[in-house]
């Protein structure tokens, strides 16, 4: 299957009310295990990729190493691969576009791209993030690949206070990101069932929810209109916990 075909296949998996489940991987071995379990696509977790290489999340792992890991994953499995690319490893739109172009050359068909200022504080103003998404879409079009840009907003992750206060801003950003060329809208940290439903009802893009404590089960998320469910760093945490327990038994 060609990269263009994989990109189309991946986009088609995002169906409102019938969400694609992404059990995130961090290297070629974990990606193969997930694919062999029957996954229709494989996504990386930036947190897990960094931790597996001894780095902290937040673009502390060198971009060149990220590219090598992603290349190994894309070359090891036949299903579509989408990469968690944090903030694109630059604040400059042109540099972000260049970085994403290299990922496309490695075989990925999708990215997560967040509006948090990774090396700073807070979120990019909406207009700045729109410019960054437009640059990525332009780069993908030059490559002739229908890259799935999963536009992530960090309005809810780690938020204190009432998340309902951020819903209007989230909807505003979703509309702007869609107009800029985004393919999906990711709302990690949003747990409340009613608020997830408001996002799904008010957004034209497929909505992605992150599995975490307090998030409704898959069946309920589907009923709310969610199109994508991600496990983030949880698979890595579970795997490392199992390794540690096995090592303790072996060494005792």
Automatic annotation (TrEMBL):
The keyword Transferase applies. InterPro entries: ICL/PEPM (IPR039556), Pyrv/PenolPyrv_kinase-like_dom (IPR015813), Pyrv_kinase-like_dom_sf (IPR040442). It holds the Pfam family PEP_mutase. Its EC number is 2.7.8.23. Keywords: Transferase. SUPFAM superfamilies: Phosphoenolpyruvate/pyruvate domain. The keyword Transferase applies. This is Putative carboxyvinyl-carboxyphosphonate phosphorylmutase. It comes from Frigoriglobus tundricola.
